[in-house]
Each structure stands twice: as structure tokens, then as C-alpha cells.
Write a structure and sequence with these properties.
- By secondary structure, the chain is α/β, with parallel strands linked by helices.
- The chain has a domain at 2-195 and 228-311: ABC transporter type 1, transmembrane domain (ABC transporter transmembrane region fold, Up-down Bundle), CATH 1.20.1560.10.
- It is built from 20 helices and 12 strands.
- The strands form 3 sheets. The protein has a 6-stranded mixed β-sheet with strand order 6-9-10-3-11-12. It has a 4-stranded antiparallel β-sheet with strand order 2-1-4-5, with no helix packed on it.
- β11 (535-540) and β12 form a beta hairpin.
- α4 runs antiparallel to α6 and α4 (109-133) packs antiparallel against α10.
- The longest helix has 48 residues, at 49-96.
- The relative contact order is 0.08.
Length: 577
């Protein structure tokens, strides 16, 4: 929690005034029993109505002043905690966006979402309660004991006995619930994971009629979460009965011994009432402190999880900054090896090849052979474990990320579009792209015809994730988006899987005819998509099984021939389609 206090730096005044006004409220609260005691001992005892009215007016004034101080304190605390939460979320979101795919794989999307939402909320609530109660509750306890001592030292000994007993009960209960609260956060993480999987994979789940299994899995986690919260709730519920038993026993003792002291004239009746009130104030303050500690415990557990993300530094950072060299070679892999996070097996082993500017390179292989992994190393989504990835004459590690990625247009396997207009989505690579540039990209990607049919044309709305488009339309628009700005390198990572063969062929022809000096990398499982490439890389279980043209690979690569046979292509064929 203390490590996150830096996000309060713009709210220092509110962080000071909030507790200060709470202490002011506490002072007014501690004065109330004193006024009541004098009202009883002087006004009620002597039948002095004027004194009673005067004391009543003072009590009302103290109540109004206390309420005003409390509302002011809560206003400052709310301002500070809300500002803290906003800055924390912004900083966490910004930090997550600096992480490479390696770190994102480590945590997983559901866990990061939970930390961004639930954990940040818990910490924000903790800050709010600390500003409001952290100083007030101990001050009330100490102040009540001090005020009691001014009335009767002997009777205040009851306070000194009851207060530690109350504190012991409260902290024993808290100790039992702390572990349960941490487990609850883990169960919430699991619930987020299951929810995300069920929603994103809804079509698959229904296609295989696995709704019942998914429901049972979610219900099992929910039941465990319920049981965990129920146990912690039952333990926490013991706090009130146990503490009230101790307080009531203390009040009985005060009234018993106080009555005797009144009889002998050591104290007055009003002072006994004041002591009872102070005892109740101690109870309420300790209960509030206990609740505060529970909230702080939850906030601390959440703060640890948030700090874990902040402590995770990206393994991919900007290089020293170089400009592309004047070279004919656009991409070169030199003995590159790569493995994913927490995996002992290499996803790529000793990959070496080069691609000249203007060349089209096809990458083909079985599922899981490392095709996407290979192209993800070019824009530095991941860094190679060993070897070098060279782009335009320099190691990719030497470029700033903006410089490197500004020259690369990449279309991933999953077509991702964002809520907004078609024009907004097309301008992701180049914010200043003109409508003519966008139309050219739409034409090359075979998207122009269906976009023209949309109401509003380029101003046609796209729903989140492109839900109002078909799979093929989404893929073609993502290809168009990558083409806007005419990147030096275009990577199509199995981005035409939803297209029919005729549209795929027209797309490849348009890219070939309209992209001067652009290096195009086509990742596909279709022979028809790569057979006309200048160079084809054949991957097999992370290794380069063959490199060459379609004709040469039919002669030299058994893996390629097997892929051709599986797709009904005669291995005796040579040349283009």
C-alpha cells in the first residue's frame, strides 16, 4: 500500500485535510458526554430548565459542527481516493501497454483485467477508509480513556481492562479472515477466467453442446467462492456479539461501581453516564478500526497483486535508435532460436533465411510448426532467445519500437476491429491518411465493393470487435488497415483463412500488382496462397525443413510434398497456377 502512495502526490492537501477534519469531529464527539454530565448534574438535579436548554443547544451545536466536519472530511477523502484510483488505473494501464507479449502471457488477460478493476477498486476503498478512520479511531479510544481519567481514575481502570480484551477479540477474528480474503481474490481471478472463456468461446461451446459442462465448472468455482466467503463472513460475524458482551459487562461494572461511588459522593450521576458513553465510544471506535483493518487487509492483498505488475518490466525496450540502411535485404534471420515463457522446448530452432525488398515470401507448415512465432519476431512482439533478426540492415533490437513498427504492416490471425467508423479503423497506422489512400487500400484488400454498399460509406459504424461484419469482411478490412500508409514490410499471418479461393487469389494478385518494392510475407496453410511466392519457407516442428520456390521444394522437400498431397495437389506439377 505504501508503495502506491505516490499516486496521492497531486492530492496532498485533501490527504491532510480529510484526517484533520475527522479529528475535529472526534473532538466534538468526545465533548458530548461532558456536556451531558453537566446537564444531568446541574440542570436536571436542580430543575434548572434554562441550563438544560442551554446545554441542549450546546449539544445541537456540537452535533452540527461534528456533522459538518464529518461531511467535509468525507468530501476530501473521496476526492483524494477517487483521484488516487484514477491515477493508479491510468498508470497501470499505461504500464501494461509497455509489456511485451512474454509478460502478458505470464499473467494472462483475465488476471490483468481483475487487477485493473477489482484490485484497483479495493485499494481505492482502502485509501478512502484510511483517510477517514485511520487517525480517528485510535484518537477516540485514547481520548475516551483520557477523558475517563479526568472523571474517575478507579472506574477508568475498567476501560483499561476492557479495551485490550476488545482489541484481542477483534484482531484474533481479523487474523482468521485475512487468509480467507486472499483466497477469495484468487477465486475471483478464476471466475474471470471462466467467464472470459465461456463468452469468447460461446459458439464452440454450443456447437459441441458443452453448456452443461461449462455451467458446472463455473458453478463449482462459484460454490467454492461462496463457501470461502461464507466461512469468512461467519467468523467476522462473531465480532459484534463477542465485543458487545465485553462492552456490556464493562458498562455493568461501571454502573455497579459507579453507583457505589455516587453513594459515597466520589462522583456524580452525570459522570457515571459520561463514563458509560465513553465506553460505548471506545467500542464503536474499535469496531470501526477492525472494519478498517479488514478493508486494509483486502487492499493490501490487492496492492501486492498490482505491485507485481508494476515490478514486471518489459523484456523488450527501445534500442539506441537507428534508421533503415540502404540495403537490398529487407529481412534476415541468422540462426534464430526462440522459446515461450515457462517452456523448456524451443518453438523455433536455428532458423536462417533472408528476404530481399520487393520479394514475396510464403511460410507454410503444419499447425504448431512455428509460423506465427517466426513472424512475431520481426516487429519484436517477442525477442529471439539467440541469433539475430535483421530488418533493413540493422538488428531489430537497435531500432526504437515506433521506428521499427511504423515500417511494418501486420495482419494477425484473429481479425480485430475497434468500435468506431470504417475511416477511424483505417487510420490506425496513419492518422493523416486521406480518403484516396484508404480507398486504394480497400481496393487492394477486395473490401471496396462491400464498403460502398454500407450506409455512410467510410463513415459506416463498426461495432466493438466488428460484430456487425462477417468473418471474411473483418479479415479484408484488417488487411486494408495494414496497407494504409504503404509499409515497407507487409505480414499476412494466415489472414485470408475466411476468404474463398477466388477472393484469396484476387487479393494476392492485387497485392502483387499494387505494392511496389514492398516485402510481403504470407503465412498460410494453403499451398494455393504461397505457391506463387518468390520464396517459400517450410516449417516443421519449429525447424526449417526447406526453402525455395514451389517447383524446387517439390523436388527437394518431403514435408512440402506431403502438404501438397494432403491438399490434393499433384506433386508432379511444376510452375504457377
Amino acid at each position: 500500500m505504501f508503495r502506491l502512495a505516490r499516486f496521492l502526490k497531486h492530492y496532498k492537501a485533501q490527504s491532510v485535510f480529510g484526517p484533520l477534519f475527522k479529528l475535529t469531529e472526534a473532538v466534538f464527539e468526545l465533548l458530548v458526554p461532558v456536556v451531558m454530565a453537566k446537564m444531568i448534574d446541574t440542570g436536571v438535579k436542580n430543575g434548572d430548565r434554562t441550563y438544560i436548554y442551554h446545554s441542549g443547544a450546546i449539544l445541537v451545536l456540537l452535533g452540527v459542527l461534528g456533522l459538518t466536519a464529518s461531511l467535509t472530511a468525507q468530501f476530501f477523502a473521496a476526492r483524494a481516493s477517487t483521484g488516487f484510483g484514477t491515477e493508479l488505473r491510468n498508470a497501470l494501464f499505461k504500464h501494461i501497454n509497455t509489456l511485451s507479449f512474454k509478460e502478458l502471457d505470464k499473467y494472462g488477460t483475465p488476471s490483468l483485467v481483475t487487477r485493473m478493476t477489482n484490485d484497483c477498486d479495493q485499494v481505492q476503498t482502502g485509501v478512502n477508509m484510511i483517510l477517514r478512520l485511520f487517525l480517528r479511531s485510535p484518537f477516540i479510544v485514547v481520548g475516551a480513556v483520557v477523558m475517563g481519567l479526568t472523571i474517575s481514575v478507579k472506574l477508568t481502570l475498567i476501560f483499561l481492562i476492557a479495551s485490550p480484551v476488545l482489541a484481542l477479540i477483534i484482531f484474533a477474528i481479523i487474523k482468521k479472515t485475512v487468509v480467507l480474503y486472499k483466497t477469495t481474490q484468487q477465486k475471483l481471478d478464476r471466475a474471470s477466467t471462466l467467464t472470459r472463456e465461456s463468452l469468447t468461446g460461446a459458439r464452440v461451446i454450443r456447437a459441441f453442446s458443452r453448456q452443461k459442462d461449462e455451467t458446472e465448472s463455473f458453478e463449482k468455482n462459484s460454490d467454492e467462492l461462496y463457501v470461502n466467503q461464507l466461512i469468512s463472513g461467519k467468523i467476522a460475524a462473531l465480532m459484534n456479539p463477542f465485543t458487545y458482551v465485553v462492552v456490556n459487562l464493562a458498562i455493568i461494572a461501571i454502573i455497579w461501581y459507579g453507583g457505589k461511588s455516587v453513594n459515597v459522593g466520589n462522583i456524580t450521576q452525570g459522570e457515571v453516564i459520561a463514563l458509560v458513553n465513553y465506553m460505548n465510544q471506545i467500542l464503536l471506535a474499535l469496531v470501526a478500526l477492525a472494519n478498517l483493518i479488514v478493508i486494509i487487509t483486502k487492499a493490501q492483498a490487492s496492492a501486492v497483486r498490482i505491485n507485481e505488475v508494476f515490478d514486471t518490466q518489459t523484456t523488450i525496450s527501445d534500442g539506441k535508435g537507428v534508421t533503415p540502411a540502404d540495403t537490398d535485404t529487407a529481412i534476415e534471420f541468422r540462426d534464430v532460436c526462440f522459446s515461450y515463457y515457462a517452456s523448456s522446448d524451443d518453438a523455433l530452432e536455428h532458423i536462417s533465411f533472408s528476404a530481399k525488398k520487393g520479394e514475396t515470401v510464403g511460410i507454410i507448415g503444419a499447425t504448431g510448426s512455428g509460423k506465427s512465432t517466426l513472424v512475431n519476431l520481426i516487429p519484436r512482439f517477442y525477442d529471439a532467445v539467440s541469433g539475430e533478426v535483421i530488418v533493413n540492415g540493422h538488428n531489430v533490437r537497435d531500432y526504437t519500437l515506433n521506428t521499427l513498427r511504423s515500417d511494418i504492416g501486420i495482419v494477425s490471425q484473429k481479425a480485430v476491429l475497434f468500435k468506431g467508423t470504417i475511416r477511424d479503423n483505417m487510420r490506425w497506422r496513419d492518422k493523416g491518411a486521406t480518403d484516396e489512400q484508404i480507398e486504394k487500400a480497400l481496393m487492394i484488400s477486395q473490401s471496396l465493393d462491400f464498403v460502398k454498399e454500407k450506409p455512410g460509406y467510410l463513415d459506416s459504424k463498426i461495432l466493438q470487435g466488428g460484430r456487425n461484419l462477417s468473418g471474411g469482411q473483418r479479415q479484408r478490412l484488417t488487411i486494408a488497415r495494414a496497407l494504409v500508409g504503404e509499409p515497407d514490410i507487409l505480414i499476412l499471418d494466415d489472414s485470408s483463412s475466411a476468404l474463398d479461393l477466388a477472393t484469396d487469389a484476387r487479393l494476392r494478385k492485387a497485392i502483387r500488382e499494387n505494392t511496389d518494392n514492398m516485402t510481403v510475407i504470407i503465412v498460410s496453410q494453403r499451398i494455393s496462397s504461397v505457391r506463387n511466392a518468390d520464396k517459400i519457407l517450410v516449417l516443421d516442428d519449429g525447424r526449417l525443413a526447406g526453402t525455395g520456390t514451389h517447383s524446387s521444394l517439390l523436388d527437394s522437400c518431403e514435408v512440402y510434398r506431403e502438404i501438397c498431397r494432403s491438399q490434393g495437389i499433384e506433386t508432379g506439377e511444376r510452375g504457377a497456377e
